[in-house]
C-alpha cells in the first residue's frame, strides 16, 4: 500500500468526464500496489454512487457494476479508525474545519506516514498545513 485513498478520487474513477491522465495513472498504481482507507470508505463510496444515480448520472445497472469495480480494488481498510473518532479525528476536524469523514482520511495518512490522494481542496489544504504529503492530481 502506497497512499491513503480519499473517496473523491475513487468516485472520479467512476465517471469518464472526470478522468485525467494523473487520475488514471493513480488507478493503475492502486491496481498494482494497493492503497489504504479508513473504515468509512466503503460506506462513503457506495453512498456516492447512490447519490449519482438519484441525480441521473448513472442507472442502477451501472451503479451495481461500479460498486463491484470499487469493491474489487485492493484497498486495505484501516481497523483503527473507529477507536480514534473521539480523539485524533475529532481534533483534526475541529482544528482544520473538516468533516469528521475527511478528518478520518487525514488522520490515517498522518498516522501511517503515507501520502494522501484527494481532490477535496479543503482536505488538501489541511494536509499541507499538517505536513502530510499529497499525491499530485492536478
Written overview of the protein:
- The chain is mainly alpha-helical and about 140 residues long.
- The chain has one domain (about 5-130): Rossmann fold (3-Layer(aba) Sandwich).
- The chain has seven helices and four strands, in the order βααβααβααβα.
- It has a two-stranded parallel ribbon.
- The chain is globular and about 40 Å long.
- About 35% of the residues are buried.
- The model has no long low-confidence stretch (mean pLDDT about 95).
Explain the layout of strands and helices.
Elements: E1 4-5, H1 7-12, H2 21-33, E2 35-37, H3 41-54, H4 60-72, E3 75-77, H5 81-96, H6 100-112, E4 116-117, H7 121-130
Parallel strand pairs: 1-4, 2-3
Helix pairs in contact: 3-4, 5-6, 6-7
Keywords for this entry:
138 residues; mainly alpha; Rossmann fold; two-stranded parallel sheet; two-stranded parallel ribbon; 4 strands
Low-pLDDT windows of residues: none
General shape = globular
Query: Helical residue percent?
Result: 55-70%
Beta strands, count: 4
Please give the order of strands in the largest beta sheet. 1-4
Strand content: 5-15%
Spell out the CATH superfamily: 5'-nuclease
Query: What is the rounded distance between the termini?
Result: 22 Å
**Over all CA atoms, what is the radius of gyration?**
14 Å
Structural class: mainly alpha
**How many distinct folded domains?**
1
